[in-house]
Amino acid sequence: MKIWPLIRLFRHGAAIVVLLAWSCKEKEAEHEGNFNKSQTIEADQEVKLVILGTVQDAGSPQLGCKKSCCADLFNKPDPGRKVVSLGLVDKEAQKRFLLEATPDITSQLHNLNWVANTAADQMPDGVFLTHAHIGHYTGLMYFGKEAVNASEVPVYAMPRMIGFLQNNGPWDQLVNQKNIVLKGISEDSIMHLTPSLSIVPVRVPHRDEYSETVGYRIKGPAKEALFIPDIDKWSRWEQDITALIAEVDYAFLDATFFNGEELNTRDLSQIPHPFVVESMALFNSLPPDEKKKIYFIHFNHTNPLLSPESEEYKKTISNGFRVAGFGKEFEL
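and the corresponding structure tokens:
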């Protein structure tokens, strides 16, 4: 038996293994880069906020959508099209928190753990819910016995939201099986998550069929953020949104629809949100330093702000505002 062909085969096989390993590493780095490419702070920042999703509850592309905004995405999905969620990281305290439990929670928790340099299978130290609309709490199901079968993940919510989860299936099973532990929060009451990180629920008007709706003020050692992914209209809120913007460093605000023309198949009076054009008009007189605090987020699948190439996106940026980007990180 000749040995040289075997040696050549071994060398060829070894080369293939090396090439495959290199290829896998390259793809892994590319995935991480896709998530982290738009970050704005150094990776070693101790306390930070990360955008884990920017899209409205039903995602993008959306079920049943035949419009051009979705057509190409069914064939070539965009990995950055995740339902709206923020992550909070305190590296010194070794704590990680999710704001919202979305249908994309699997990849979002994976990305949060990657940002925190934590094991990929670690459950969050807490999940904060805003309200009982499908994109904001249904990811809780993945903590259940059909999935990871988690043990006592803390879930923070307002009183009606807690009652909804306790008294309706399948969510009550998560409670009874102790996959999650419900923890009550109160409007305008500060919660200290770590010595360097705190959070305050802010009640907002919205379609409260099953629960109240809140946003959150998030305070770190250096900076503060406001997160209001859902609200009916700014005029229906007793608080002055411009005054709140003045008190924080970042404001992630509801931008579900760019204007009233993009969704021509639904009665928008039944799903009221502040149009982006309305918000830009309301905030137009703010000084440039105040405008640049505003990051529009929570985009319906029809919203042209999902595309940086759109004229609406360019108009928003040229007017001094910002558009929340998947994977972007912020110092707190």
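(Above: one complete record from the training split.) The chain has one domain: 40-331.
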